[in-house]
Amino acid sequence: MANVRLIARLDIKGSNLIKGVHLEGLRVVGDPQVFAERYYHEGIDELIYMDIVASLYGRNNLADIVRHTAQRIFVPLTVGGGVRSVDDVRDLLRAGADKIAINTAATRQPDLISEIARRFGSQCVVLSIEAKRRREGGWEAYVDNGREKTGLDAIEWAKRGEQLGAGEVMVTSVDQEGTRKGMDYELIAAVTSAIKLPVIASGGVGAPADAVRAVTEGGADAIAIADILHYGRHPLSAIRAAAIAAGIHVRRT
Amino acid sequence: MKPHVVVVDYGVGNLLSVTKALETRGADVAVTSDPHAVLAAERLVIPGVGAFADGMAELEKRDLVRAIREYAASDRPLLGICLGMQLLFSESDEFGLHQGLDVLAGRVVAIPNLAGGGRWRKTPHIGWNELLLPPTRDTWERTLLAGLKEGAAATYFLHSFVAEPADPSVRLADCDHDGFIVSAAVQQGRICGCQFHPEKSGDVGLAIIDNFLSM
User: Fold this and answer.
1) Residues A118-132: pLDDT tens digits?
2) Which residue ranges make up each domain of chain A?
3) What is the CATH number of the domain that holds B175?
4) By CB atoms within 10 Å of each CB, which of A44, A54, A113, A150 scores lowest?
5) How far is A27 from chain B (nearest CA, A)?
6) What is the DSSP letter of A198?
7) Does domain A5-245 have CATH number 1.10.4160.10?
8) How far A43 CA lies from chain B's nearest CA (Å)?
């Protein structure tokens, strides 16, 4: 059995750690570096930084924050938001990122996934999918933080991403994100059964039991957690303990 | 005296984290693609992510293949990380057969996707796994992994291919990825390799770096 990873997801706007609901209504939480260091010392398995307005404004200011983080934090770091080219990827890797999450640019130019995979290896390409339930069933992939439709079926897009050479898929439920009402377990299960890549489930963890369900019902390989960690609602240790109690393999720290 | 470490820069991946991890543990680090600096190194680290053939091509382009081979023959400490470990071996199957640095005998092969009972084993192998003593070893004393607790110390892996050393005594640690035994670390004399990323493995990884720096 592979160990399930517990990942802290830090959404970044400008130089701040922020948190929204449904990826909108953003509130400033604090200095991302402070939170990242705290999670590192508490034994987080990975960190994800998402510059959540970067693609909206067509800019990329994450490299500095990443460089700062990489000085003192020795766990894997995935960085996304505004990645538009192979050069952007090189810069972020050079700044200390291990993996790159790509969303908007990939929907507009799918071959970018292949180009990055060819140059830096599949293992560093995370296809980030923002999925929103369709009234008629299924999910549609959105971009720009759940603001803009792509017309792509989220599950088909995940399969396409796998074929193009992504090494991992992160699926965020726009409906559940920031609500703390639990994750979209059907969505997670639909993605994990459609592709053979590791899947990071994101959006909606309000209690340790939600993270457990992402694995037991959704088959997730990793869970991205934000709100409940940032606001100290549940410590990482409680989530880890709940996973162990449910018989899920996690790193024992 | 600060230990001096040369980190080989051959154009790909995250060099900052490995540099910072070494510096955090008291090393003086030079990141370079100069073959003369490699030959003169006190300790050498070959990091790396990406594809095997590309890695070798980038080393060739910078005239680093001969320098690394010559360094490796001199019994000075060497640490290959992830792709850097795989490159130490004779050859790889990744996207066709490719020659490696041939410092260690063996080959690099894909992690098989077919697990027991017809299940699919996921690749890339991403995540934290506990290090295990291979059947050929009963202790990590006086090795790169000295002081670590077998079955308890976990490190971070991110890879789709694995090295298969020809000489089983070279295997230093294994890990179990969904029923498949991964050669997680190797050591022959002072030539070491980690399939995992010590610079991304928290305190356990930093302890391994300490061991490398005191070799």
Assistant:
1) 888 899 999 999 999
2) 5-245
3) 3.40.50.880
4) A150
5) 30
6) -
7) no
8) 8
